[in-house]
């Protein structure tokens, strides 16, 4: 990252914190209507490419972030959503790392989200072998985290107060959806699976409840945007999380 920081040709966007209120008030926002809601089996980068054609840089990306380490396992070759975004946009990692050096990490997942406007993406993700774009794509990245239920203390807290955890997840998603009302397209990612998932015995019910909180937050805030698209990329043999979120958010 020293090369990026010292280069006069590459601008590193600033990341700033936004406090998550106890009650998210979106009544003062100017609505975009109507809102189309989708749940799709695509990566965040694929959706950014798709919506950039029509909406340009009026796009927000929900980065499911690591609340301890900027970029998560980016430097260790991990391949979850945040790490893939950092590979597609090195300035995103540079911005988060710079933010960390100013005290931005670690952060409490239920108290803050992070906003990084004007992030340029120079290439796609591994689904397209990180192919470079002729022209960079630009959007706002909104980084948020969820509970780490591998952590014993957080798991015990969840087991004793599950409804509070679900309420906090709802507040996080609502804040992500309302923090930048000028954005026309919001691309969301899913909680409840992956590295921070609960033990297998709790996994299915937890994901159902998390999906319900996403559905509630989307329904409350849907008129803020023209499109809300939840992208959950999965292999054909591992569609459980995608199936749960689609069934809950878009019931037939």
TrEMBL record:
Every Microbial-type PARG catalytic domain range: 27-100
One Pfam short name: PARG_cat_microb
Protein name: Microbial-type PARG catalytic domain-containing protein
Taxonomic source organism: viral metagenome
